[in-house]
Amino acid sequence: MIEVQHPGMYSSIQDLGRYGFRKYGVPISGFMDEASAVKGNVLLGNDPNCAVLEFANAGPKLFFTKPAIIAVTGASFNIMLDGKEMNPNRAVLVNSNSVLEMGKAYKGVWGYLAIKGGITANVVLGSRSYFKGLTREEKLKKGDIIEISTLSESSSQEVSWGEQLPDMDLYRTIPVTEGPEFHTLSSAIRLKITDATYVISPQSNRMAYLLDHTEPISAKEIVTAPVQPGIVQLTPSGKMLVLMKDAQTTGGYSRIFHLNEKATQQIAQLRPGEEVRFKLV
């Protein structure tokens, strides 16, 4: 098992998400950067849906009570294993009574700790992903115990030892397609929202990323309609919101753009204060 000595920021257990329950108002949840999380699982020979530890901006400090094979992917963190620098994006053997400390991110936001065999958290509605009000926990806290699989004789044979994955790339121009209400905007506002430069707000989280800007833009409210991760909403007051994995299932703001899964993951890795632009495709 693993003992949480310090939880870091926004640390939680996530997998590919919770599907088939949106009609009941249950968000998808799951990895904010699916590509990075799945790479870690694949590197270890895990199923892509194995639960991993997700964290943002500042990672956790963890004590391993038994051996484990791990991989850290996603954003770039200063990682220390038993006081020595540890390389990310590759399989690493952790001995019993070892301490793993992630430190602060210096590139990107969301990091992932994959563990051989996965994390054995409770399954709720088909997923181990944490979500407030649905799972027992919303995020990790000091003293929490994370149950992990025990290594078997064949575990090591399933791991891609020696393979070094490339570091994550950052993208500041994000491809988007027109949303359902894009055509209701005036031609002047359409031009402004596609030409504008936005700044990631510190208020951004797993529900939505708020984009700060200085453009005189706005859109009318609509009759409540379905929304999903990747939808970009424009409010009557001019706020721009990119819905993320814990987003609600319906909303009353104009849906002006849509980001596909890859584009949503790209914008998720941009830090507060960083600039981003949209490219209509």
From TrEMBL:
Domain Carboxyltransferase: 23-281
Record has Nucleotide-binding as a keyword: yes
Keywords: ATP-binding, Hydrolase, Nucleotide-binding
GO terms assigned for molecular function: ATP binding; hydrolase activity
Coiled coil: none
InterPro entries the record matches: CT_A_B, Cyclophilin-like_dom_sf, PxpC
Keyword presence, Glycoprotein: no
Protein's name in the database: Allophanate hydrolase
